[in-house]
Design brief:
This protein is α/β, with parallel strands linked by helices. It is built from nine helices and eleven strands. Strands 3-8-7-4-5-6 form a six-stranded mixed beta sheet. Helix 1 runs parallel beside helix 9 and helix 5 runs parallel beside helix 6.
């Protein structure tokens, strides 16, 4: 079946040169964007109940932009002035770059991983005498705490923000040829909003093995998978699929 409409379960890109916009124009398909989940901050008073005293920590581990935003939000709510001596361990360059929103980059001690948490761990191990705080979501990948435990460093995890299912009731009678998901939470949101969802001719595209597993465990079908050696990005995987489907 041909593809005419796609729903991407993320916010619309803010950059003009997004590959999704190029895909839309090149393949003459309609692409809509709608977050299936969103993030809500945990109030400072609830974080205090987690026995978190920001003054005790000498290093912060930041795994995402959300972690950056909510760490500084909580610090502000607690009226805690983050010391210039604080060390920041960022999972990726994108997270480190985003940190500039809050600190003068060249004047801070910032350590950057390449892509994933495993690649950041040697830097954390190098500074094993620090007291690390991991401000995170309520749905943290188990790999992160297990890696920190293996490193034998002193660290504490605290939930600074939560992943919440978005209300999608206005999409009840809207049909898309392809639904695109990037996390198991997106699948959870789909089935929460539409418990009687029947896939039928709707194609499901997923990014990553954990998202693929979530689809299969829900009794649904995965039609498009990224990343692969041939299609390392979701936009490339969609384009490859559409080129074949729309030739029929």
């Amino acid at each position: 079946m041909k593809v005419k409409t796609i729903l991407v379960s993320q916010p619309e890109p803010k950059v003009e040169n997004s590959p999704y916009f190029d895909l839309q124009e090149k393949q003459r398909v309609k692409i809509d964007f709608r977050p299936f989940i969103h993030v809500e901050g945990v109030p400072a008073k609830e974080i205090r109940l987690q026995k978190v005293d920001l003054g005790l920590y000498t290093a912060i581990i930041l795994t995402s932009r959300n972690a950056v935003d909510h760490f500084f939000r909580v610090a502000d709510e607690m009226r805690f002035k983050v010391p210039d001596t604080m060390k920041y361990f960022c999972q990726s360059e994108a997270v480190a770059y985003y940190l500039q929103k809050y600190v003068v980059y060249r004047k801070r001690k910032i350590y950057v991983g390449k892509r994933n948490f495993t690649e950041l761990s040697p830097l954390i191990k190098k500074y094993k005498d620090e007291n690390f705080l991991l401000p995170t979501t309520d749905k943290l990948k188990p790999q992160v705490p297990s890696t920190l435990d293996e490193l034998g460093v002193k660290w504490k995890q605290a939930t600074f923000y939560k992943t919440v299912i978005s209300d999608l009731s206005d999409l009840a009678n809207v049909y898309y040829d392809i639904l695109v998901f990037f996390s198991p939470s997106g699948i959870e949101s789909l089935l929460h909003n539409f418990p009687d969802f029947q896939q039928n001719n709707t194609r499901i595209a997923v990014f990553g093995n954990t998202t693929m597993d979530a689809v299969k465990n829900s009794g649904l079908r995965v039609d498009i998978l990224a990343p692969t050696p041939e299609t390392p990005s979701m936009s490339m995987a969609l384009e490859k699929y559409i080129e074949v489907a729309n030739k029929k």
